[in-house]
What does this fold into?
Amino acid sequence: MRYHELFHRCPQNPILTVEDWPYPANSVFNAAAAQVDGRTLLLVRVEDFRGISHFTIARSADGIRNWEIEPKPVFFPEPDSHPEEIWGVEDPRITRLDEVKKWVIAFTAFSEGGPLVSLAATYDFREFQRLGPVMPPEDKDAALFPVRFGGRWAMIHRPISTFIRLGAHIWLSFSPDLKHWGDHKPIIMARRGSWWDANKIGLSAPPLQTPEGWLVLYHGVRTTASGSIYRLGLALLDLENPTLLTHRTDEWVFGPKAPYEREGDVDDVVFPCGWVRDDDNVRMYYGAADFSLAMATASLSDLLDFVRKCPVR
It folds into this structure.
């Protein structure tokens, strides 16, 4: 097995493009994913011809074909009341909080001061309550855990910091109320040198709860002479204490190879914001070259078997 091909591309890729869209758009990509009422729901990032992004919902019975796309955006930037959204909303990630019976969406709001993490909540994906910014810029790539730890919610995010080694690393923070966040701690550090995940990493899909720990899918950005390459790796966090990193892959497990991943608005990018688990099958939804939306599948057992063999490095 070629371990950096643990995910297998859907033969129908790309599964959604601007050609499928019910209104004019430049690109559709970087979608959050959830199972809602027996169907796959994607909260899709859509970029208009100004370069500003909003979210639109697409639904499918099998998560591959026959997508029903809302005729208009369901979540549009509101800079008059939320100035942090002046340049758009981007890269949503959905987490179901069973304790409070609602879905919470972590997304990037693009403010005049730079990108920052904002939250919104919904019961039905028809109406959304903005909870507002929860991290100052520059910060992005955020998602909540679905359960509390010691009575507090936890969130992974990616601030830009020069104080703990050069680069951008993955952090964890805690909150009693989803509004006030503290106990910030880096949990996965970008490597240095020629590694595929040197200097800049970030969360991809939300953490997935498994008996072996919290499975984290993250992206690494390698800068080359011809530009950046976005690839994916895996990590495991302790089930009871997610500040503890127990395993991390040395090799990437998925990277841009198909033409629709290598050429687009931003070349050589695979960027998942959501995955859906059905028993041992995992469907990963990812933006391809910042232009279209694609899907790949993997066996959860294979992912866990591989990451468990890798040391923390």
Notes: The chain has a mean pLDDT of 95. DSSP finds two helices and 21 strands in the chain.
